[in-house]
Design goal:
mainly beta
């Protein structure tokens, strides 16, 4: 059984930083593309960043240059370093795993490509 668990959400002032972490169990973590998504109230899931089995990363334009996604295959963990946070980054953040190691650019950051999801962790940025 695959389990996905996120850690590290919280509240921060605009311009501050947070680091999210996720641990995935029940699959061979190193073989799969994993990523972060977020959802604001009343909106669909939005792809934030992902990293494939080769370590290649993709970012949403809105977070490029501010967020950094990394993975630690030895610890089955995924991390998202979020710097220079803005009020519009406020959302529930989810960690997810896709059922394959690499996604083409057209499929990257698309929620429908990911089948294993955590319960989410709230990030709130105040001005």
């Amino acid at each position: 059984q695959v389990r996905v668990m996120e850690f590290g959400g919280g509240s921060v002032q605009a311009g501050g930083s947070l680091r999210l972490s996720c641990v995935v169990s029940g699959l061979t973590f190193s073989r799969f593309c994993v990523g972060w998504f977020r959802q604001r109230p009343g909106q669909d899931h939005e792809g934030v960043a992902d990293i494939d089995s080769d370590g290649e990363t993709s970012y949403a334009d809105s977070v490029e240059g501010r967020f950094t996604v990394t993975r630690d295959n030895a610890e089955n963990s995924l991390h998202l370093q979020m710097d220079n946070l803005k009020a519009e980054d406020t959302a529930m953040y989810y960690c997810a795993a896709a059922p394959e190691g690499r996604l083409t650019p057209s499929r990257s950051l698309r929620p429908e490509e990911y089948i294993y999801w955590g319960q989410g962790t709230q990030v709130t940025v105040s001005v």
